[in-house]
């Protein structure tokens, strides 16, 4: 399947009052047509920053971004800001973690939809726009679209707001949707529903999804492929089935062992130690200080190597097999 998004060697440094902070250290990943890709990793590993860099939503100042983000053939890192704004909201859209924070309490849901539609579909007249909004809300299983359109976000439940966000993210039928931990601000059932709706819609509209999550259970149900991120790098990439059946990177293994499983009596094991300080330079493998297999050889640069369809950045991974 054709790649619609190809991120290559993305490197990002913020210049802070404490000095430079190197948060992305050569991130490469791709999303193909009709594919749902999950980006997982501990807090602070750089998932949200990667999503923002892809969409051109990083702060303008005090940051250095290198590498390329090729979306449908053009490099977004060097794209004109006006052109990028146009594509964002039409060809690629984003859903954030907390719908209440993302929706504006001052405007009705209808007015917020209209703002989105006027950018993505300026050709629609008022009646067509109304029909389009109602359809988008019915798509996310909202049975009374008019009432929801007339409401303000604070009048709706968290679950309903989350569905409104999905409808807004998909109303332009984007080629790519980036969802940063959608629904984690809400309860587990709502999060599950959110994902099922997104999965169904991505299938019917052929929208590719890059999906960020902490929750490996959710990832397993939802994603076709998984990229595991650690300390600003991708350390493993595999199909979902392969990753869960045969995790190769020691960090991936530790991450899988750290989640409780209903089907087993084994207690989850937290990963000892903490992620490296992004202000410090890292030599070789960033997971070395926490890894049982680490040797001096891990201090060299460790590229991703291919094992069948899996890609792994670990020189010791054969020792697992
Ligand atoms: N504007 C900024 N200036 C300086 N540092 C930043 C900025 N934005 C993010 N960072 C740093 O970048 C690193 C990665 O942050 P990011 O939000 O991408 O992590 P994450 O993987 O999304 O974590 P979480 O799972 O908690 O959402 C963190 O160390 C964070 O402090
Ligand atoms: Mg985040």
From TrEMBL:
PROSITE patterns cross-referenced by the UniProt entry: ABC_TRANSPORTER_2
One Pfam family here: oligo_HPY
UniProt GO cellular component terms: plasma membrane
Gene3D superfamilies per record: P-loop containing nucleotide triphosphate hydrolases
Keywords: ATP-binding, Cell membrane, Membrane, Nucleotide-binding, Transport
Topology versus the membrane: Peripheral membrane protein
Subcellular location: Cell inner membrane
Domain ABC transporter: 7-256
Listed GO biological process terms: peptide transport; transmembrane transport
Keyword GTP-binding (UniProt): no
SUPFAM superfamilies, per the entry: P-loop containing nucleoside triphosphate hydrolases
Family: Belongs to the ABC transporter superfamily.
PANTHER family assigned to the protein according to its UniProt record, in alphabetical order: DIPEPTIDE TRANSPORT ATP-BINDING PROTEIN DPPD, OLIGOPEPTIDE TRANSPORT ATP-BINDING PROTEIN APPD
Protein name, as recorded: Peptide/nickel transport system ATP-binding protein
């Amino acid at each position: 399947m054709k790649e619609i998004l190809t991120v290559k060697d993305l490197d990002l440094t913020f210049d802070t009052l404490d000095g430079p902070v190197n948060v992305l250290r050569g991130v490469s990943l791709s999303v193909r047509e009709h594919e749902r890709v999950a980006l997982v990793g501990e807090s602070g590993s750089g998932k949200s920053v990667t999503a923002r860099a892809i969409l051109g939503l990083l702060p303008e100042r005090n940051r250095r971004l290198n590498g390329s983000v090729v979306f449908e053939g053009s490099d977004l890192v060097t794209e004109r800001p006006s052109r990028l704004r146009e594509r964002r909201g039409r060809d690629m859209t984003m859903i954030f973690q907390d719908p209440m924070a993302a929706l504006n309490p001052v405007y009705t849901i209808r007015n917020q939809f209209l703002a989105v539609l006027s950018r993505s579909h300026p050709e629609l007249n008022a009646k067509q726009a109304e029909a389009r909004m109602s359809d988008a809300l019915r798509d996310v299983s909202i049975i009374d679209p008019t009432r929801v359109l007339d409401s303000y976000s604070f009048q709706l439940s968290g679950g309903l707001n989350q569905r409104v966000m999905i409808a807004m993210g998909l109303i332009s039928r984007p080629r790519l949707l980036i969802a940063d931990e959608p629904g984690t601000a809400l309860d587990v059932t709502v999060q599950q529903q959110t994902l099922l709706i997104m999965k169904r819609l991505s299938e019917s509209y052929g929208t590719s999804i890059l999906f960020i999550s902490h929750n490996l259970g959710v990832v397993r149900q939802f994603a076709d492929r998984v990229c595991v991120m650690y300390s600003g790098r991708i350390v493993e990439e595999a199909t979902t089935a392969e990753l869960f059946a045969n995790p190769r990177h020691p960090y991936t293994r530790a991450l899988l062992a750290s989640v409780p499983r209903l089907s087993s009596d084994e207690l989850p094991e937290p990963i000892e130690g903490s992620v490296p300080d992004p202000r410090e330079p890292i030599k070789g493998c960033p997971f070395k200080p926490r890894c049982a297999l680490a040797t001096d050889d891990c201090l060299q640069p460790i590229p991703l190597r291919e094992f069948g369809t899996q890609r792994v950045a670990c020189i010791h991974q054969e020792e697992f097999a």
